[in-house]
Amino acid sequence: MDKEKKNKGFLKKLHHKYRLVIMNNDTLEEKLSLPFTRFNVFLFVGTASIFLIVATIYLIAFTPLKEYIPGYADFNTRQVLRELSLRTDSLERDLRQKDLYIMNIRNIVEGRDLIEDIPDEVKDPEAVTFDELPRSREDSLLRAEIEQMAQLDNYYMAAGEGQAVQQAIHISFFTPLNGIISSRFSPGEGHYGVDIVADHDAIIKATLDGTVILSAWTIETGYTIGIQHDNNIISIYKHNSSLLKQQGQLVEAGEAIAIIGDTGLYSTGTHLHFELWFSGNPVNPADYISFE
């Protein structure tokens, strides 16, 4: 009976009416009057709490704010990381190919052998390299013989490809310089072009339309210019006295690109060293161009 009386008394208290009055402190004038009951207060507080809980759950589940909550799982993160990893690998592969292309262009200009891949750097500075090992006389002779055979193989392979240049793409080369050939094409001896002797201050012209990919000074070849043509053809002009074109410029066949000279350590007199490369291999320019 006592519990029932208490419960009835509590329910009655919930419905007791109260009034919230806001008055002016100086004049005691009533400014605002709000009637309410305890039940209304409980109902308002409960509704507001439920609204805040639902709004918080919605913001966390369906807005980007969830990414700022530590430990909250983002199901798209793994997919994004995978795509970024694939894109990074693709960029690294493209950059490596471009570095290899530039390195081979430099090797062509400086008369070195081409490489098929960029060597990785040695991580252990104390690692012993083959150059540090002693070599016998027989080993040196064998190495020289193998290198000479490899150069000859590259020459015959390049010659076979070179003979197919005009048959496959039907191009006509413009004579870069009229003169006398003083040194002919000899890849077995490391001479990948022809030397043409002409008058002083003779103008050197582009053999085909293309883009200048090299226009610079090197110690070995002096003022050198290289042009990238269509169909994987590159022409190189070395030992010039001055260059008339800069890297990145477009040139047309027969357009003046340099002046004959005698620059570089490898030069023995005023002449033009002219090289022609097809698909990464040297070909004999005299097979396609008449210099006399």
Write the SSE topology.
Layout: H1 2-14, E1 17-23, E2 30-37, H2 38-62, H3 77-109, H4 137-169, E3 180-183, E4 193-197, E5 203-205, E6 210-218, E7 222-229, E8 233-243, E9 250-251, E10 256-260, E11 272-278, E12 281-283
Antiparallel strand pairs: 1-2, 3-4, 4-11, 5-10, 6-7, 6-9, 7-8, 8-10, 8-11, 11-12
Walk me through the structure.
The protein is α+β, with helices and mostly antiparallel strands. Among the domains are: 2-64, no CATH class; 167-287, Glucose Permease (Domain IIA) (Distorted Sandwich), CATH 2.70.70. Helix content is 36%, strand content 25%. It has four helices and twelve strands, in the order H-E-E-H-H-H-E-E-E-E-E-E-E-E-E-E. Strands 3, 4, 5, 6, 7, 8, 9, 10, 11 and 12 form a ten-stranded antiparallel sheet that branches. The chain has a two-stranded antiparallel sheet with strand order 1-2. 20% of the residues are buried. Residues 121-132 have low confidence and may be disordered.
List keywords for this structure.
Glucose Permease (Domain IIA), 10-stranded antiparallel beta sheet, alpha+beta, two-stranded antiparallel sheet, rod-shaped, 36% helix, 292 residues
What name is given to the CATH topology of the domain at 167-287? Glucose Permease (Domain IIA)
Q: Which residues form runs of ≥5 with pLDDT under 50?
A: 121-132
- Helix/strand class: alpha+beta
The largest pleated sheet is described as: 10 strands, antiparallel
Distance between the amino and carboxyl termini? 131 Å
Radius of gyration: 42 Å
The pLDDT mean sits at 79
